[in-house]
Amino acid sequence: TVIRDESGKIIATLSSGEDITERKKNEAQFRKLSSAVNQSADSVVITDRKGVIEYVNPAFERMTGYSREEVIGKTPAILNSGRHDAAFYKTLWDTILRGEVFRGEFINRKKNGDLYSQGETITPIKDETGKVTHFVSSGRDITERVAAQNALKESEQRLAGIISFLPDATFAIDRAGTVIAWNRAMEVLSGVKAADMIGRGNYEYALP
């Protein structure tokens, strides 16, 4: 600012400024976090307290087939497959509205109708008073892992069925040494019931 006397002669200048170092630092931090979320391989969804979607990252779009424009303003119910009952969602909402983190596995439906399994973590965001204002959900597609687990379980059940008919005392363990089958003849020989051994390490019991 220039200050002049009655004749118009400049007699002083005033300058003022604002230290924007902290603001620049915050802006840089925000850009870094925003870039990390956008480039994350995990799906990220931010909703308000009522569950209305305010943001989704590109990984969400790739995983679900929905574009950002299609889901902003809607709720995650758009992915509902009908495979979870009301009690499941009640537990979810009760947990996050208390300000606690919810972790679980969902069976969701993509835009094209395909089902997929998703491991998901929902974290409440609180304001300075401790009130929950938003939720951040992050997750990844675990369809292949769940399919492999189910296939292994079915295989173990078939093996247990076969072993149950064998006349000799027989039991089976998995790679970790956990008992997955213990037939009737083994019960007679050992005096230990199958119910007491299934799921336990075989090292917990040894024949005399």
Describe the structure.
The protein has 208 residues and is of the alpha+beta class. The protein has 6 helices and 9 strands; from the N terminus they run E-E-H-E-E-H-H-H-E-E-E-H-E-E-H. The strands form 3 sheets. A 5-stranded antiparallel β-sheet has the order 4-3-7-6-5, with helices on both faces. The chain starts with a strand and ends in an 18-residue tail after the last helix.
Give the count of helical stretches: 6
The computed structural class is alpha+beta
Which percent bin holds the helix content?
Answer: 25-40%
Question: In angstroms, what separates the terminal alpha carbons?
Answer: 99 Å
Q: What is the CA-atom radius of gyration, in angstroms?
A: 30 Å
Low-confidence stretches: none
In round numbers, the mean pLDDT is 87
Reported for the largest beta sheet, the result is:
5 strands, antiparallel
Number of strands: 9
Envelope shape: elongated
What sequence of helices (H) and strands (E) makes up the elements? EEHEEHHHEEEHEEH
Strand content: 25-35%
- Placed side by side, the strands forming the largest sheet appear as 4-3-7-6-5
Care to give the gist of this entry?
34% of the residues lie in helices and 26% in strands. The protein has 208 residues and is of the alpha+beta class.
Main attributes?
9 strands, 208 residues, alpha+beta, elongated, 5-stranded antiparallel beta sheet
